[in-house]
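Below sits my pick:
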Amino acid sequence: MPSGVPSADRHAATLARLRWRLSRRRPAREIAVEIAGAPQGFVVYAPQSPEAVLDDTARDYARRPATATWFMPYWATPWASGIAAAEAVVADPAPFSSRRVIELGCGLGITAMALAEVGARLVLVDVWPESLAFARFNAVRQGGPGAQVRPLLADWRTAAGADLLLRSGPFDAVVAADVLYEADDVAPLFDLVPRLVRPGGVAWLAEPGRTTSRLFVDAAREAGWVSDVTSVTRDPWPAEAGRGTVRVHRYTSMPILTRGRDDGVGSTPVVMG
């Protein structure tokens, strides 16, 4: 497109192209999500049927080798933790405005929408290409013509994925909303987060009280990570999200620990910055 075209027109053309690509994959719908503190609620573009996404995933993995890793497509549904993280960003945008921010496990991009709206320079990470496509569209639309959104396909739980993210850093802020589903996820996240954040940066983790989340929070406390916590319990969530309490942990000091135990959570602190 010619450089003389107004940025608003370029933005509209980008959105049209991204939405067209999404429409080729599957039917989609728009979901209104209330975000406390935002002047207007968010409109989230999402698959029309999360069940169809699950069916497609099952068929895909049935064709793969028996050693292939199975991931549930949780990304296709709005979740309370993503909404709570978005609300926390709206309430306190200073750590993100005009800063380099990476979101791990971006899902549909509800938190990314808030980050884009406050002017973050975003890297969105997920293991699902389709998730990244929806999240990118939602964040670019919410952020307006100045939105800076880069999708990055990676599995932060693997050594190769972590290395890719570290080569993309460092970042002023790391954000993750409800990414700890398995006990094996705790050590990789604990190891990665402080290495992604530049000295003086922050990491925000939104979690709904899963046992695996508590393992992470306890490990961070024992390691000397410094945080404050905001709890959110309210209705209405979208029908898909259910209802409950989400805690947003805002870490401002994250000593890096060397590995010293079988669970990958170390015991010797190496303090950043």
User: Anything to note?
Assistant: Confidence is low (pLDDT under 50) at residues 235-242, 259-273. Residues 7-25 form the longest helix (19 residues). DSSP finds eight helices and eleven strands in the chain. The two ends are 44 Å apart (CA to CA).
